[in-house]
Amino acid sequence: MEKFSKEFNGYNRQEVNQFLSDTIKQLEGMLQKAEQQDKILKEQHTKIAEQTKTIQSLQEKLVHYQSIESTLQKALFQAEESSNNIKRMAQEQANLIIQEAKQNANRIVNDSLLRSEKIELQADTLDRNLRIFKKKLRLVVEQQLAVVEEIEDLELN
């Protein structure tokens, strides 16, 4: 603190007035700085409030997108399961169709073998009957030829 020079009725008025004037200027400067700082703090508070709202909005969006991501992952997992089930069922159906086709093929082959055996047996029977028929026909023709020769012998005698 400054010391004032003394005069007849106390301190030097001019020095005191100057000191008061300087003090007032300093206080006004400090008040202006305080007001500016208060204004800056209010602006910063406003910015912080806006940023907080933005952060809250972004957090809400993040939660929303995480929910969507979770839903999509579940849907993808279910789609994979469905796809695997469809593939498995298609493979089972293909195996059943192949098995049925093999059974039908075996049945057809067996039926064909039975038919071929029957036809072969019929062919053998027909061949045997043809040989028998030829022998009998030859016998009949020979007998008729013998009769014709007897008739010729009788006519010539």
Report on the architecture of this protein.
92% of the residues lie in helices and 3% in strands. The protein is mainly alpha-helical and 157 residues long. It is rod-shaped and about 215 Å long. The N and C termini lie far apart (196 Å).
Number of helices: 1
Major β-sheet strand ordering: 1-2
Please trace the helix and strand order, writing H or E for each element: EEH
Structural class: mainly alpha
Low-confidence stretches: none
Query: What number is the mean pLDDT?
Result: 91
> What proportion of the residues form beta strands (DSSP E)?
under 5%
Radius of gyration: 64 Å
User: What is the approximate shape?
Assistant: rod-shaped
State the assembly state of the protein chains: single chain
The profile of the biggest β sheet is: 2 strands, antiparallel
- Helix proportion of residues, in percent? over 70%
